[in-house]
Every structure is written in C-alpha cells, then in structure tokens.
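Prompt: I keep going back and forth on a fold encoding question. Comparing notes only helps if you start from a blank page. Show me how you would write down a chain together with its backbone fold. Please set it down just below, with no commentary around it:
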Amino acid sequence: MGTPLLSDPEITIALATLPEWSREGAAIIRTVQAPSFPEGIELVRKVAAAAEAADHHPDIDIRWRTLTFTLSTHSAGGITAADTALAHTIDTIVG
C-alpha cells in the first residue's frame, strides 16, 4: 500500500505549521524571492539535494529571482506527510 493521503483537517493542521505555504488543489505551494538569480539557483541546488535524500521531489519553477516550489505525492494523488515534511525542510533551507 502506498503513502496515505492526508485528510482535509490534517492538511489544515499541517499548514498551520507552514505559514509560507498554501494549498492549491492537490498540492501545497510556496513562492520565494531570492536576493539574486545566482542565489536562487543555489537555493534550488540545496532543495534538490534534500529532495534527493528524501526520495521525494518537488516541482520547481524558476523565474529570474522568483522560485515556486510545488509539493504533491503524484503516486498517491494528493498531499501526504512526505509533502509536509519536505515543505519543512525547504523552509529550513530558505531560512
């Protein structure tokens, strides 16, 4: 059996501990403004290393200094504990 989806109340509780994140359908999303393009790419590199270590990978959109991280467990069809755990890791990396 795969990773279980979080219920709507569980997602609400999780987002209370992730104030920079919001829910959009079956995903949670955070947008970050990096001080410069190279610093944004460095943040992406650090997130990529953490995601690889967790074996859970976000969708990342890079628009100059604006980075958007989207988390959803595609194999489960929505938001799981793996997404909220990686969101906390991303928050630590971003600072």
